[in-house]
């Protein structure tokens, strides 16, 4: 899958006024009718706003997916020094 041309979303009607988006077998978001329009949410529950039509809400989910696939360079977390002087990650101690 190219970042410039991601696979299209597959929309399925899950209920009378709820539509669920998938890419392959991965959940990609949903659109549901609310009191003031059609609410769109991303795959991690991101609120993508209220829209005037199902098509506009679906476009918001698709647009969010394209923006979310851009790569973000993350620096690796540095290893911390333990009390013994050895390098490694420190986990919280549970009592």
Question: What can you tell me about this protein's structure?
Answer:
This protein has about 100 residues and is an alpha+beta fold. The protein has a domain at about 10-70. Helices cover about 15% and strands about 35% of the residues. The protein has one helix at about 55-70; strands at about 10-15, 20-25, 25-35, 40, 45-50, 80, 85-90. The strands form two sheets. Strands 1-2-3-4-5 form a five-stranded antiparallel sheet, covered by helices on one side. Strands 6-7 form a two-stranded antiparallel sheet. It is elongated. The relative contact order is 0.15. The mean pLDDT is about 80.
- Overall geometry comes to elongated
Average predicted confidence as pLDDT:
79
Radius of gyration: 20 Å
Residue windows where pLDDT falls under 50 for at least 5 positions: none
Biggest sheet record: 5 strands, antiparallel
Structural class, by secondary structure, is alpha+beta
Helix content: 10-25%
Helix and strand sequence: EEEEEHEE
N-to-C span: 46 Å
SS element count, helices:
1
Can you count the beta strands? 7
Helix-strand blueprint:
Blueprint: E1 10-15, E2 18-23, E3 26-33, E4 38-41, E5 47-51, H1 54-68, E6 80-81, E7 87-88
Antiparallel strand pairs: 1-2, 2-3, 3-4, 4-5, 6-7
Note the main attributes of this structure:
95 residues, alpha+beta, five-stranded antiparallel beta sheet, two-stranded antiparallel ribbon, 1 helix, 16% helix
């Amino acid at each position: 899958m190219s970042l410039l041309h991601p696979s299209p979303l597959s929309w399925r009607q899950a209920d009378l006024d709820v539509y669920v988006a998938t890419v392959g077998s991965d959940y990609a978001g949903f659109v549901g009718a609310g009191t003031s329009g059609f609410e769109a949410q991303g795959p991690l529950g991101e609120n993508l706003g209220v829209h005037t039509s199902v098509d506009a809400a679906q476009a918001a989910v698709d647009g969010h997916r394209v923006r979310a696939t851009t790569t973000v360079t993350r620096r690796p977390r540095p290893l911390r020094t333990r009390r013994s002087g050895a390098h490694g990650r420190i986990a919280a101690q549970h009592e």
